[in-house]
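Example 3.2
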Amino acid sequence: MVDQASATIGINATPGEIVDVIADFSTYADWSGYIKSADVVSRGDDGKPEDVHFVIDAGVVKADYTLRYDWHLDVDHAKVKWTLVSGTLKKNDGSYDIRMTDNASEVVYSLAVDMGVPMLGMLRRKVEKVIMDTALTELKRRVEKT
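Structure, written as tokens:
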């Protein structure tokens, strides 16, 4: 059974600015420590990336997979969702839910991942926490830098 986990961070930017960074997959290897490559395979009618192929190397965890993205953007709210299409993982479904607050955005990152290898529950939760914390802090750093 795969549990879904989530974490939240505040980012000093609009939802649109955050989505622009999320959608710029060509730069992921520059700012996301464990992603070695992220290549857009196909785009939707709106021009946004639809299928994206990733190669990750986080030391003991290595994976090669393709995710399908779904994008929703309003002035004060954005939601970016993805589902696993293919690859070495058994499951990788998640989302960024981005809401404008007073002068910043609150980003809720949700993730359900199954790496396809048996893991103790405590170890799995630790891996999920590292993935989420790293993803959010690196996203925040990248958005606020640009």
